[in-house]
Design brief:
The structure holds 2 protein chains of 2 kinds. Chain A is an all-alpha fold. Chain A is built from 26 helices and no strands. In chain A, helix 3 packs antiparallel against helix 4. Chain B has a domain of 185 residues: Rossmann fold, CATH 3.40.50. By secondary structure, chain B is of the alpha/beta class. Chain B is globular, with a radius of gyration of 25 Å. Chain B has 13 helices and 5 strands. The chains are: A mainly alpha, B alpha/beta. Chains A and B meet through helix 1, helix 6, helix 14, helix 15 and helix 26 of A and helix 1, helix 7 and helix 9 of B.
Chain lengths: 583, 356
């Protein structure tokens, strides 16, 4: 479900009604878990089972780590819950109910059967071909997990703790490996086999990517790791744990929530308060503005400039630069717009989610950029990967290795493509370079120069140049755009060709030759200019949502009225998904 | 070990107050949206129309009433729109001893054979005497889904209202359920879909002021809706680019053999529909730029075979104008210029004199 759709408004009103009606935590949590599952199932009901299994494993696993043994009844209850969930998510023909005919929504079935009226017999037939296998795996897990659980408790304490942690990690990373990286790994194995002269045909594994799997997997992993590190007391209530994992504002595209940020709040009754409602609503409005008016408008310009990499060779470098700038704005407004909406919705419900973006495009160096961009992911990577690897308290060579490894894996987190790994490694190299530079120049006149205003502007310009090149690599992280043409000299349509063209400026400043042509929407350019002004005002003065919070009530009513009008005329005819939904 | 402690919660607020706040947030937005919708229904759409798609709606209005007797309706894409001057065609067609023909240039820019099927029942309900279908070898190529905005525009023009009752989604293999639903949409759905018209038309007018050189077939002109009086010089790099783009596009379009049957089936269906409605079908192979003709070599025999079959099956008159024009008669790689228009209109006029 997307925040900007009418069905979400209905869901949100239902949740608010429930939370104001029920004053105790238990019915409130039941309501919120159901709402969260509906929110997720609206995107793709099949993958709800993964969320359920992930919650079950990490709930019982973290308790096992802590030393709390679930009774047999509690364990079998979880198993029943899993088996029922598997039947519900996989055993029913949901696409038939939705009228799409099949799960392949990209190419809807237009055969006569899809126009036929729904019959209940058909609805109770599995919607996926691999139902026996998928259901069998879920049932095998449901049966074996209580037994395995019992066995782990026969170990010594340290061994038991490790066993539960390893099981939790294997389950979470295994799901990521299969559903996100399965095709990628198989394709690379086939390529490698061919390179060695082995003729091997890869098995037909076409697995769709579950929405938000990278986000909720990181959430559940941090839960298990924190329990292992004894930083949290694992949740005894499965309901609270399920809500922590699936809480709908952060479920699909973050922020990547940490146990200590949400679990304490869940122990109290949820209270709907007027000031939070208003303030949250303002955040939602800001998010909608960023997503619908800026990101979706600018996306058209990006598509014109960058969608045909083979044509980029005929265009001047200026086209690539402008494409990179537009994409930088698009991805920022798309992702930070989503985060604003998620934080706003959560604030309306009474829970504060952490800030995920803090004006990243005002960073004066790349390290600052990563303190401002996707903060919840970068702190997650820092706490659960970089520091365990040794962090910065080791030899310089090891620190650079840690940085490169962390960022390359962070790149891979974004998607199953070598280009994402390259993007991550590129960011790691920039951070290493920055670290070397800071070490060299510390206490010298160069450091003092970069502390002055012109120096800061120069630092900002260099950072933006590097960031834009990074966004181009990110944008072309698509299997259709090869890294390089290893068998010929024509590199024009490859990622390497794009990087070369971006770095070596061809001296053509003629804006009419960049290929925007006559199809470029002028209003997108105007939206871009408006965003630039508002963003600067917001950085140097006060955030938009906070400004709205300070306005008198009558002014707000007028603004809401006008926004209602703008919404009708400006709301795009088709809802576009958020870029980070694919990660 | 860090024990998560709940932060202190302030005393609860009465539910009524919270709901008053929620209403205070949503009501002004809803009122604003309602006011905008009212503006859209009573002011924006009546005055601004559908912009580029207004010609579709206008054709819907035109075909709501029967055509005058002896009417000839020319349907097709922008090649017909730019290539047919009704007055010239009438001049060539009319004979002193026969009642004068009236030619209507009802071509819509980008209207392929699948869109012609969408509009045909309504056009035929207006009882034309002759229907001229402008065909290109693209009829033997890949068939795209119809653009969603166009689907709503066809619905806004009332075309699906004249469809036979048995036309369901499966009748249109190229359509998705979304585009089919758009064609079957209600007036409210259309009104809401076209909510972006002020923004789109602002965009269009800004682009026109800033860049110029746009072609937009006038909405209510059924006589001479052409705009291309100019010709790109032979050494103009834009012309080369035009050819290069077009060749790449055609290649993608014509390579898919699986869709050929679908397209030829639609062409056959439309021709039968015209005959069944009592009108005379005339299928014209539209002029093709000499530099583009070679691109169709692989589909040309099949296309001609289809035309021959249609002539036998339906009594349709087939005319080949594909080699009628020289390179000097084209404004760009596709559309005729003033000289080409004169030649093509006269060609159609002579053809009409034969078939009437």
């Amino acid at each position: 479900m997307l925040f900007q759709t009418p069905e979400f408004l209905i869901l949100m009103l239902a949740v608010l009604a429930g939370l104001t009606f029920w004053k105790t935590t238990r019915p409130q949590h039941v309501l919120l878990v159901i709402a969260s599952y509906v929110f997720y199932a609206w995107l793709d009901v099949r993958f709800l089972i993964l969320l359920l299994i992930s919650s079950c494993i990490d709930y019982s696993g973290a308790l096992g780590i802590y030393g709390t043994k679930l009774t047999w009844t509690e364990r079998w209850r979880l198993s029943f819950f899993t088996i029922f969930g598997a039947w519900f998510c996989l055993g029913l023909n949901w696409p038939l109910l939705q009228g799409t005919g099949s799960y392949a929504t990209a190419a809807p079935d237009s055969s006569p059967t899809s126009a036929a009226p729904l019959s209940w017999d058909q609805f109770f037939q599995p919607g996926i071909d691999q139902f026996p296998l998928a259901f069998g795996l879920c049932a095998a897990f449901a049966v074996s997990w209580p037994l395995l659980y019992e066995w782990y408790f026969s170990f010594s304490e340290n061994r038991r703790r490790r066993a539960f942690l390893v099981t939790s990690m294997v389950a979470n990373l295994g799901m990521l490996a299969i559903f996100k990286y399965g095709n990628f790994v198989l394709n690379n194995v086939v390529t490698l086999a061919h390179a060695f002269g082995w003729e091997w045909t890869r098995p037909a594994l076409e697995v769709a990517l579950p929405p938000g799997i990278s986000f909720y997997t990181f959430v559940t992993m941090s839960y298990g790791i924190d329990a292992y590190r004894r930083e949290i007391v694992p949740e005894r209530s499965f309901l609270r744990m399920a809500l922590f994992v699936s809480y709908f504002p952060h479920l699909v595209a973050g922020p990547v929530i940490r146990p200590d940020q949400l679990l304490p709040t869940l122990k109290q009754p949820w209270q709907i308060r007027s000031e939070r409602l208003v303030s949250g609503f303002h955040l939602v409005l800001v998010g909608l503005f960023k997503k619908l008016l800026i990101a979706d408008s600018v996306a058209k310009l990006v598509a014109i400039l960058l969608n045909r990499p083979d044509e980029l060779a005929q265009r001047p470098t200026l086209a690539l630069w402008m494409g990179a700038v537009f994409f930088a704005v698009q991805i920022y407004c798309d992702f930070s717009g989503y985060t604003d909406m998620a934080r706003g919705v959560s604030r309306m419900l009474g829970v504060e989610l952490p800030l995920n973006f803090n004006f990243p495009y005002f960073s004066r160096n790349i390290a600052e950029f990563w303190h401002r961009w996707h903060i919840s992911l970068s702190t997650w990577l820092r706490d659960y990967l970089y520091i365990p690897l040794g962090g910065s308290r080791c030899s310089p060579g090891r620190v650079y290795f840690n940085l490169m490894t962390t960022m390359a894996l962070g790149g891979l987190w974004h998607g199953a493509s070598w280009n994402f790994v390259i993007w991550g490694a590129y960011q790691g190299a920039l951070l290493c370079g920055h670290r070397v530079w800071t070490g060299w120049t510390r206490g010298t006149w160069i450091a003092r120069l970069f502390a002055t205003l012109p120096g800061q502007v120069l630092g900002w310009a260099i950072t933006m140049y590097c960031t834009l090149l990074g966004w181009l690599i990110f944008y072309f992280s698509n299997p259709k755009v090869p890294l390089a043409n290893f068998h010929g000299s024509d590199q024009a349509g490859t990622l390497w060709g794009v990087i070369q063209r971006f770095v070596i400026f061809d001296g053509q400043w003629n804006i009419s030759s960049i290929g925007l042509g006559t199809g470029a929407p002028v209003t997108a350019g105007l939206a871009l200019a408006l965003f630039a002004v508002l963003h600067c005002v917001s950085f140097f003065y006060r955030r938009w949502a906070e400004t709205l919070d300070l306005l008198p009530r009558w002014a707000l009513q007028i603004i809401y009225f006008l926004l209602g009008m703008v919404a009708l005329f400006g709301w795009p005819s088709e809802n576009s998904a958020f870029i980070y939904f694919q990660f | 070990m860090k024990q998560p402690e709940p932060s202190p919660n302030p005393p609860p607020e009465p539910a009524l107050r919270a709901w008053r706040t929620i209403m205070g947030l949503l009501l002004p937005v809803a009122l604003g949206a309602a006011a905008a919708l009212a503006l859209q229904v009573w002011v924006v759409l009546p005055s601004l129309g559908l912009g580029n798609l207004e010609r579709i709606a206008a054709l819907g209005h035109l075909t709501a009433e029967p055509f005058p007797p002896e009417s000839v309706v020319a349907l097709g894409n922008s090649v017909t729109a730019e290539g047919l001057d009704a007055a010239i065609a009438e001049q060539s067609a009319n004979a002193p001893d026969r009642p004068p023909l009236r030619v209507w240039n009802c071509a819509l820019s980008g209207c392929g054979i699948n869109e012609q099927r969408v509009i045909m029942p309504r056009v035929l309900a207006a009882k034309p005497k002759v229907v001229i279908l402008g065909l290109q070898p693209e009829q033997m190529g890949y068939m795209d889904n119809i653009n969603l905005d166009k689907c709503y525009a066809y619905a806004y023009g009332g075309f699906p209202a004249n469809w036979p009752a048995d036309w369901k989604l499966f009748h249109f293999p190229e359509l998705t359920p979304t585009t089919y639903d758009a064609l079957r949409s209600t007036r409210w759905q259309q009104t809401i879909h076209f909510r972006n018209q002020p923004l789109i038309q602002l965009n269009e007018s800004l682009r026109r002021r800033g860049l110029g050189g746009f072609r937009n077939t006038p909405a209510n002109n059924w006589r001479n809706p052409y705009e291309m009086e100019f010709s790109l010089p032979h050494d103009d790099p834009r012309l080369d680019q035009n050819f290069a783009n077009l060749k790449a596009f055609k290649k993608r379009f014509l390579d898919d053999a699986s869709a050929k049957r679908q397209r030829s089936a639609i062409t056959r269906e439309i021709t039968n529909m015209i005959s069944a409605a009592g009108a005379r079908p005339v299928l014209v192979l539209l002029p093709i730029h000499p530099k583009m003709r070679a691109e169709y070599d692989n589909v040309w025999p099949e296309f001609q075979k289809l035309c021959g079959e249609l002539q036998l099956e339906t009594g349709a008159r087939i005319a080949d104008a594909s080699e009628l024009l020289t390179a000097a008669d084209f404004a760009d790689a596709v559309h005729p210029n003033a000289a080409g228009r004169k030649k093509y209109s006269e060609f159609l006029g002579h053809l009409l004199r034969e078939v009437r």
